[in-house]
Design goal:
It is a single chain. The protein is of the alpha+beta class and about 425 residues long. It folds into 4 domains: about 35 residues; about 160 residues, no CATH class; about 150 residues, YycH protein, domain 2 (TATA-Binding Protein), CATH 3.30.310.160; about 60 residues, no CATH class. Helices cover about 20% and strands about 40% of the residues. The chain has 8 helices and 25 strands. The strands form 4 sheets. Strands 12, 13, 14, 15, 16, 17, 18, 19 and 20 form a 9-stranded antiparallel sheet that branches. The protein has an 8-stranded mixed sheet with strand order 2-1-4-6-7-8-3-5. The protein starts with a helix and ends with a strand.
């Protein structure tokens, strides 16, 4: 009898141990019936809100070609940029015809033909572009990435041309059917007639003929804590071990994943080499997966734009660029610097799963900051500066950016010109 009682007691102990293990492994405190796999993490809302992918997909700038060699530029969050982009999103583009880029005389079109040129930097997959524009691509076109869209009118043509540039460089796709009239394009172009005039240098970059008006800001700033990052990235933050590296950086690991924190550079780097592959992976799916990951593991502390998706042999790196500014002055990218990483979010994916995640630990309180209107030089003053920095090489691009500067407990965002040189280097004009 005693042996039977002991057996029942032992069985109850084993059963209770299994139940307790279930709750420890598969449930979080306060949850009801949700089951979490080892690749899902505790969500934190301490860093920033979630964001829809569509709100991260927009051109870095618009070039308005007025004809007769005249041009102007509109940047995100400026008055006419918002108006034109909203209208173009409501138009449809169909029946794409593949052509060689050499079929067009772009220098002549740029100089003589009124038009709108949207720049997407290093490119955006067509599958993502479809989320913000009404495109009906064929099987060939939908596999492309697009870095420019050029909509223009030609003399004696009854319909405008809408040309999409492949990132490969030698191919363009022209929409045979576009829900736009010549009058529509001309109306959009006319918005630029009273704006700052720009002069182009071989179509590579554009120089404003007068100063550019922007905002300059100084805002209270701080750092996200290690505890915040741990709770966001680890299933059980209490199980992590602490390691201090020789270079002063701190590493937290649960034996599978690791979080490296460099407080001197205000930067964190997370790695999960054991993450299970999701299966089929495409450029567009990886970007959307990256957006979802940031939504679930930190959020977006400010305005961001999808910047690039770079594929290597084993993985893909997706980058989002921080922007600052407001209507009607425009929004511009925040410069990322070696000693002050503030402007970028990087994610690395393998087979559709995020395996690495890097971002700044710094945040700023924009609502509590002070802003003032300032100007970047243009015209001959700017050209003189460009001549100095471009000795021995060419200039491939020029655009305004914000340089972040730490001032005690504040962060100052100072407008500067960023120059991209033909040798691949970049220079800021203070």
């Amino acid at each position: 009898m005693k042996e039977r009682v002991k057996s029942w007691i032992l069985a109850l102990l084993v059963l209770s141990s299994l139940v307790e293990s279930y709750y420890l492994v598969y449930r979080l405190p306060g949850s009801d019936s949700a089951v979490f796999s080892e690749n899902l993490y505790v969500k934190t809302d301490n860093m920033g809100p979630e964001e829809k992918a569509e709100n991260l997909l927009y051109p870095s700038r618009m070039v308005i070609h007025l004809g007769n060699g005249k041009h102007t530029l509109f940047y995100p969050s400026s008055t006419f940029y918002n108006l034109i982009l909203t209208r173009l999103k409501g138009r449809s583009f169909e029946s794409f015809q593949r052509r060689s880029v050499q079929d067009f005389d772009w220098a002549k079109i740029r100089t003589e033909n009124p038009g709108i040129e949207l720049s997407f930097g290093s490119g955006i997959p067509v599958a993502l572009l479809q989320r913000v524009m009404q495109l009906s691509p064929d099987s060939l076109f939908e596999e492309e990435s697009i870095n420019r869209i050029w909509i223009y009118t030609a003399k004696n043509d009854s319909k405008p041309h809408a040309v999409f540039f492949s990132t490969r460089g030698d191919i363009v796709y022209e929409a045979a059917k576009a829900d736009l009239t010549v009058q529509d394009v001309q109306q959009h172009v006319d918005f630029g007639k009273s704006w700052t005039p720009y002069t182009t240098v071989n179509g590579s970059y554009y120089v404003p003929e007068s100063s550019l008006t922007l905002l300059q800001a100084e805002m209270p700033s701080g750092l996200y804590t290690v505890e915040q990052m741990q709770s966001s990235l680890f299933f059980d933050a209490g199980s992590t071990r602490y390691i201090l590296e020789k270079d002063g950086s701190e590493i937290y690991t649960d034996s599978k994943r690791s979080l490296q924190v460099d407080e001197d550079r205000k930067w964190m780097s997370y790695s999960d080499p054991t993450a299970l592959p999701a299966g089929e992976s495409t450029d567009a799916k990886d970007v959307l997966e990256a957006v979802d990951f940031v939504n679930q593991h930190g959020g977006w502390n400010g305005t961001y734009r999808f910047q690039s998706s770079q594929e290597s042999d084993q993985d893909r790196t997706v980058t989002f660029q921080r922007y600052f500014g407001s209507y009607p002055y425009g929004a511009y990218p925040v410069l990322d610097q070696p000693q002050l990483h503030y402007g970028l979010i990087h994610l690395q994916l393998q087979q559709g799963t995020v395996t690495a995640y890097e971002r700044s630990l710094m945040y700023s309180q924009e609502a509590e900051g002070t802003k003032k209107v300032t100007e970047l030089p243009g015209g001959d003053e700017l050209r003189a500066k460009l001549a100095v920095v471009s000795k021995g090489t060419s200039i491939t691009d020029l655009y305004p950016v914000y340089k972040p500067v730490e001032k005690e407990k504040n962060l100052e965002l100072v407008p500067v010109w960023q120059v991209v040189l033909g040798n691949g280097n970049t220079v800021t004009l203070e």
